[in-house]
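Researcher: Next entry in the queue.
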Amino acid sequence: MQDLHNNINPKRVISPVSVADNTAQVGQIIDCQGHASVEYLILIGSVADADATFTVLLEESDESDMTGAVAVADSSLLGTETLAGFQFDDDNKVRKLGYKGYKRYTRLTITPVNNASAALLAAVAVLGSPSIAPTVNPPV
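Model: Structure for this entry, 140 residues:
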């Protein structure tokens, strides 16, 4: 087996949350400096509403406060935002979305539509291919 443990740096994007309305869940800004890859993992728990859908948006910027942020072009994604989205019957699943762009900062947003009941979700960014390895444990 290869060593993944010492070559990744996980970051919290959206803490576990129960969403019972259509409020967009805006993730933490992720600084990609020092890493050549980033993969977003979206963790889906129970989705109670029978017609809710959840769209995913990934933005990029050169500014730490996301000034001038733009949606990531499809050519800079691994997978698609559509495939990373989910709906009412996707209980207890995981979605992934990779970024291969060149901006330093990225931010993930998950937006519910037609959601009036509890939906459990969380998201994590896994930064990989570090310029300095091994990465620290526990992560900072």
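Model: Residues 81-84 form the longest helix (4 residues).
Researcher: Noted, moving on.
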